[in-house]
Design brief:
- By secondary structure, the protein is mostly helical.
- The chain has one domain.
- Helix content is 80%, strand content 0%.
- It has 4 helices and no strands.
- Helix 1 runs antiparallel to helix 2 and helix 2 runs antiparallel to helix 3.
- The two termini are 24 Å apart.
């Protein structure tokens, strides 16, 4: 029972934080603040964090469907690399960004980077 709750939390917390940050951004006006390029960086950071969360969730669903990945599976290693890179890129873009999306994007990206590192260290 404890393992099931932990698995649900590992999938729902990043997704919930991402949904909260996008909802918060959609309710603000103006959405793009000056300088505009920094607002676009914050939007890109949220998008990259979303891609990282999506890869995390799809990887978990796929692993559950096929009964787990074998040790050092090449597809798993590529998913780890892609997820980690999108998380790090989202963190870097979030630090350069500006506006309401900046800190939530940094938080979600940092969380995803940590989760990817923790998952990779278990391999």
């Amino acid at each position: 029972m404890r393992s099931v709750i932990l698995r649900v939390l590992l999938f729902m917390v990043p997704l919930g934080l991402l949904a909260w940050s996008v909802r918060r951004w959609l309710r603000t006006t103006p959405r793009i603040v000056l300088p505009a390029w920094r607002s676009y960086f914050a939007f890109a950071a949220t998008s990259l964090a979303g891609v990282s969360v999506l890869i995390w969730i799809l990887m978990g669903i796929w692993a559950h469907t096929i009964g787990g990945f074998p040790f050092y599976d090449p597809i798993l290693m590529r998913l780890y690399a892609l997820g980690f890179l999108t998380g790090c890129a989202g963190l870097a873009a979030g630090l350069l960004g500006k506006g309401k999306l900046r800190w939530p994007a940094c938080g979600v990206s940092a969380l995803m980077t940590f989760l990817w590192l923790a998952a990779m260290s278990g391999e």
